[in-house]
């Protein structure tokens, strides 16, 4: 009855480069339950982003099954909110208009889209910036706007690929707490890609650790910290131990 | 603000005035007859004395230029979008486009006259042929420069090809489009005059020709002066339109807010 939000079964991906074939993902099984926050960590260049693009429907898998809400057939594009490390805001649109972008693509009437964007900006403390252009915002602000754009397009399933990777430590921490706030508000299911172990521990219910290319799942870790999460929890003994374990695991995988 | 303005335009202004002064003094010193090379002051004087005639020609030329620019803008945008539709289209159209620019206008203009007559049409056509190329190329480059990540984002939202064009690529190409438009604006008046030179009832081009034929060299210069002013005005107009149309692109980003 209760299908997971995302089911990935035996997904593999190989790129053809002339006669040679480059295997990026060996075979991955992964699930994200409804309302669950799942992170994927792995050494850089391991194919995390490829997996992510496959789930988003931007790339095709070579083999395997991907089901969102139990539906495996049909196009996956449009079934998730997709966000990358770069905010990718349109410089000619104001913050409010940027947040509306997904609704414009869906051809939601302008008035209605505007109303929804305003409510969202108000709820998450960005109302004062609604009429600003992105060029006037700080990096952390831009990522928040990008996240709200993602949420407004699809608030039930968020695909986030290192969304805070380019931010400084403090901005990153406040953005992470802000993301948890957004996540709780909408009971969203999240697939979060990062190479920052602490970030994964702080945010997630479960962490998938991927191997170096070709990627397969090395370990699945349950993060047993109470919610709501607070930064202090990262200093707990169990967190520190988990962090060291995962870092050691990743270091072994990291090539070069 | 004022100081910056002076710093920006001051050097060009000083140089221009110096050159004009040298010219004026050289002719006045009797090295050359003013009927062969009129002095700058003489040219301005002649322009005012003959303004009732020249203004009519100027209006005609301006009309041709503006119509030609409008047609070139439409054609340029259309071609840029066509180039962008598929790599296949690009490979087919681009070489033809470049080749079209190698046809000497001096050969083509008389033919246009034979085919289409002495009226407005062929002049507008010459302006269009002069101007569409920089617009098309600049705009096509602008369309091609859209960030791949941004296209992925739109793809993940299941945007149609036309939505991607309309929501992301075309607005993103506007700065490049305006660069092309500014280059076209500087060409455009010259294009119109060229079209008239070959044969026309009215216009600065034909005015220059008849003046030269009657050895009224000062009037040729007066017409050249009008041409230069017209070109600069058009260039300025495009820049002003750009500033209004792309507030996000220009100047003090931080201060700009939409009410």
CATH topology of the largest domain in chain B: MetI-like fold
Low-confidence stretches of chain B: 252-259
The overall average pLDDT of chain A, rounded, is: 89
Q: What's the CATH class label of the largest domain in chain A?
A: Alpha Beta
Q: Radius of gyration of chain A from the CA trace?
A: 18 Å
Helix content of chain A: 25-40%
Secondary structure: number of strands of chain B = 0
Structure description:
The complex is a heterodimer of chains A (256) and B (259). Helix content of chain A is 35%, strand content 25%. Chain A is α/β, with parallel strands linked by helices and 256 residues long. Chain A has 2 domains: 1-75 and 157-256, P-loop containing nucleotide triphosphate hydrolases (Rossmann fold), CATH 3.40.50; 81-153, no CATH class. The longest helix of chain A is centred in the last third of the chain and has 18 residues, at 169-186. The model of chain A has no long low-confidence stretch (mean pLDDT 89). With 259 residues, chain B is mainly α. Chain B has 2 domains: 1-32; 40-250, MetI-like (MetI-like fold), CATH 1.10.3720.10. Chain B has helices at residues 2-28, 40-49, 51-85, 87-100, 105-116, 120-144, 148-156, 161-198, 204-213, 217-245. Chains A and B meet through helix 3 of A and helix 7 and helix 8 of B.
